[in-house]
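This part of the workshop introduces the protein records we will be handling. Each record describes a single protein and holds just a pair of labelled lines. Instead of coordinates, the fold is spelled out as a row of discrete tokens. To make this concrete, we reproduce a full record directly below:
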Amino acid sequence: MNEDRLIEIETRIAFQEKTIKDLNDVLYDQQKEVKRLADICDALTKRIREFSAFASEIDAQANVKPPHY
């Protein structure tokens, strides 16, 4: 009876170790995806700022009255 109980405990531990490894793999993949998405957001933010600066220059030029006024 002790032998059966020991085998059951070892089986559960093996299953838990596999589950922990699988969860760790999923977490690692999610962290890589979050990093990739953060990099994309940073790049988009930079492009929007550059475009905003460019657009404000265009707006400033558009609001200048022509010399004949």
